[in-house]
Design a protein that fits this description.
mainly beta; elongated; 554 residues; twelve-stranded mixed β-sheet
C-alpha cells in the first residue's frame, strides 16, 4: 500500500513540474490570462473610441450591414441597414451613457424613442468597450469560476458573470478556451418583457486589430427566436472622432424632425366624393371579375408599414367556377412559400419547404415546438361557396403578403366587409400599364381611413395595378401589379386537388390564451400612445384595475 501511495505522489509531483500547478484556480487568474491574451490591459485602455463595420446574414435569406460605435466610458451605437425589398431599412440602437434608445421601423417605431426599461435588459453590457470581464470588480460585476469543462473537443474554463444590478436569474456564462485564453462562447440569460430569453454567441477567427485580438466571425442564436445570425467583420477603426451627439437621443430627435417627410404617395388624403360615372366603372370591374368562368394571373406585391420598406413578394393565382382556387406565394428573391388550395368544399394550406414561424397573440413560438412542426404539416378549414375569403388566408402562406388588395374570393361571389363602408369612387384620369390603356379610379372607405387606387383595363375591365393606403398609427401602403392575365382558358380540376400525405399532421395557430401572464405575475411596465395622442405607462395606474383594449378599424 505504501508503494502505491508513493507512486501516486510521484505522479502528482511530475504533473506539478510539467506545469499543471500554473493552471488558474480562481476567476481572477482566468481573467488575467484572458486580458493578456486580448493584448494586455494597456492596449485595451488605449482604445478611446471604436468603430466596427460588419456584414450580417440572417434567417429568411436576409442580409444587412452593421456599424457598431463605442466611446468611453459607456456610449454605444449600432446602425443596421437591412437589405430588404426596394429600399434599405435602417435601424438604430444606442446608449448615451444614461438612456437606451432606438429606431425600429419593423416594430412600427420610425422615430427615435426611449427603450422601455424592461426591454433595455437585453442590451446590458453592450455599451462596455472592453466587455464585462475587464476590470470586472471595479465595475461592480460578480465573476465566479464554475470549473474546467470541454466544449467541442476543446478544454475550456467556464465563468459565471452577473452584471451589476442584474436580477437573480440573469447572468452570462463565458467559455474561455484553455489554450488561447479567448472566449469561444457566451450564453446570456435575460427576462425581457416577461419572456425568458437565452442568447448564445460563438466567436471565431480571432485577428489582431491595433494590438487587440478581435473575433471576426460571431454566430448568434436566441431562444425563443429561430435561426442563426452570422456577423463577419470587414473593418475595425480605433480612436476616431465620435462626437457625443452621435449617441444622444435628443440629438437624434432633432435630426428626425428636420428630415422627416410624408411618404411619396399620390393618394387622396380624405374620403372620396362619389362620381356616378366612376362608380359605374368600378361596378363593371366587379362584374367582369365575377363573369369569368376561369381566371389566372401573376401579381408582384410590395408592402410598406411606416418606414418599413417593400418586401418584394409575389403570387400566382388560378380561379375557377363554381368554387375552385389555388394561390402559390413566393417571398423575396422568388423563394417559394406556401400554397393555398380550394377543392370546391374545403381549403388547404401547406408549405413545400417548411412552414414559416408565426408570431401571434400567443407570442413567439419556442424553438422546439417550431422545429417539431416545421415540416409535414398542413392547415384546413371549410370553404363554402360565396362565404370564404382568400384574402384573409394568404397571410398564412409566409411570403410577406398580408392580404390581397382585392379579395380574390370576389370571383366566386364573395362580398368583403369593406364594400358597405365605401365612401365613393372618383376618376383619376387614364394611364397605360404594360400596353393596356387603363381608367384610374380612386376608392375610399370609412371616411377615407382606407383608400384604393385601381388601374382598370379598358379592354377586359380587370385590374392591371392596384394600390392601397390604410391610415393607422404607421400608415400601411400596399401595391400589386398583375400580369399574364388569362381569362376563360381551360383549367383541369387536377390543379385544385390536394390531400395531405399519410405521415402529415394538421397544424393550428397557437391560441392567444397561451401568452397570458399567470395569476400573481407582475406585469412588465410599458408605454402606449393613447387614442387622444397622449402617452401613458402601465405604472401610472399602479394599485388600480386596468383594462387594455387594442382595436383597429378597416
Amino acid at each position: 500500500m505504501r508503494m502505491q501511495v508513493c507512486a501516486v505522489l510521484t505522479v502528482v509531483a511530475m504533473c506539478v513540474q510539467a506545469g499543471w500547478a500554473d493552471e488558474p484556480r480562481t476567476a481572477d487568474e482566468v481573467i488575467a490570462k484572458y486580458v493578456e491574451a486580448l493584448g494586455g490591459h494597456d492596449k485595451l485602455m488605449a482604445r478611446k473610441t471604436l468603430r466596427v463595420t460588419a456584414k450580417m446574414s440572417m434567417p429568411q435569406d436576409m442580409e444587412a450591414e452593421a456599424i457598431q460605435e463605442s466611446k468611453r466610458p459607456d456610449k454605444y451605437r449600432q446602425d443596421t441597414t437591412l437589405m430588404l425589398g426596394k429600399k434599405p431599412l435602417r435601424m438604430v440602437q444606442a446608449f448615451d451613457g444614461t438612456t437606451w434608445w432606438h429606431i425600429m421601423p419593423m416594430m412600427g417605431q420610425a422615430e427615435p424613442q426611449e427603450v422601455p426599461a424592461d426591454m433595455a435588459k437585453a442590451y446590458a453590457g453592450e455599451a462596455d468597450v472592453d466587455g464585462p470581464l475587464v476590470d470586472a470588480e471595479k465595475k461592480g460585476h460578480k465573476v465566479e469560476l464554475i470549473g474546467r469543462e470541454e466544449l467541442d473537443g476543446k478544454s475550456i474554463y467556464r465563468l459565471k458573470v452577473t452584471l451589476k444590478g442584474a436580477a437573480k436569474d440573469e447572468y452570462d456564462d463565458y467559455y474561455i478556451d484553455a489554450k488561447s485564453w479567448l472566449p469561444a462562447k457566451v450564453i446570456s440569460r435575460r427576462t425581457v418583457m416577461g419572456i425568458d430569453t437565452t442568447i448564445e454567441k460563438r466567436f471565431e477567427d480571432y485577428r489582431s486589430e491595433d494590438g487587440v485580438m478581435v473575433a471576426h466571425t460571431q454566430r448568434t442564436a436566441a431562444v425563443p427566436e429561430v435561426g442563426e445570425y452570422v456577423q463577419r467583420i470587414i473593418k475595425v477603426e480605433t480612436n476616431i472622432d465620435l462626437p457625443d451627439e452621435r449617441f444622444s437621443l435628443e440629438a437624434a430627435k432633432k435630426v428626425a424632425a428636420a428630415t422627416s417627410a410624408p411618404a411619396p404617395k399620390d393618394m387622396p388624403a380624405g374620403p372620396v366624393k362619389d362620381d356616378p360615372a366612376a362608380h359605374k366603372l368600378y361596378d363593371g370591374m366587379i362584374a367582369a371579375f365575377r363573369a369569368a368562368d376561369t381566371l389566372s394571373f401573376e401579381s408582384q406585391y410590395d408592402l410598406e408599414i411606416g418606414a418599413f420598406p417593400g418586401v418584394g413578394c409575389s403570387y400566382k393565382a388560378w380561379l375557377k367556377k363554381p368554387n375552385y382556387f389555388r394561390v402559390e406565394a413566393f417571398g423575396p428573391k422568388g423563394k417559394r412559400a406556401g400554397i393555398l388550395i380550394g377543392d370546391g368544399e374545403a381549403m388547404w394550406i401547406h408549405w413545400p419547404q417548411g412552414r414559416p414561424r408565426f408570431s401571434t397573440g400567443a407570442g413567439e413560438e419556442p424553438n422546439e415546438k417550431y422545429e417539431a412542426t416545421k415540416h409535414k404539416v398542413y392547415m384546413s378549414k371549410a370553404a363554402p361557396p360565396k362565404h370564404h375569403s382568400i384574402g384573409h388566408e394568404v397571410g398564412l402562406l409566409g411570403s410577406g403578403i398580408i392580404m390581397n388588395i382585392l379579395d380574390l374570393s370576389t370571383f366566386h361571389g364573395y362580398t368583403d366587409s369593406l364594400q358597405p363602408l365605401m365612401d365613393g369612387v372618383a376618376r383619376h384620369g387614364t394611364e397605360e400599364i404594360s400596353g393596356d390603356q387603363c381608367d384610374v379610379l380612386d376608392v375610399s372607405f370609412m371616411d377615407g381611413q382606407r383608400v384604393w387606387r385601381l388601374w382598370i383595363s379598358q379592354g377586359d375591365h380587370l385590374p392591371r395595378k392596384l394600390s392601397e393606403t390604410v391610415h393607422v398609427a404607421n400608415d400601411i401602403h400596399a401595391e400589386e401589379v398583375w400580369s399574364n392575365i388569362r381569362i376563360n382558358k381551360k383549367m383541369r380540376n387536377k390543379r385544385f386537388a390536394w390531400r395531405p400525405p399519410d405521415d402529415w399532421k394538421q397544424w393550428y395557430l397557437p391560441e392567444t390564451e397561451q401568452a397570458l401572464l399567470k395569476p400573481g405575475t407582475e406585469a412588465p411596465d410599458f408605454k402606449l400612445k393613447l387614442a387622444d395622442g397622449k402617452t401613458a405607462s402601465l405604472s401610472d395606474y399602479r394599485g388600480k384595475m386596468v383594462w387594455l383594449v387594442f382595436w383597429r378599424a378597416g
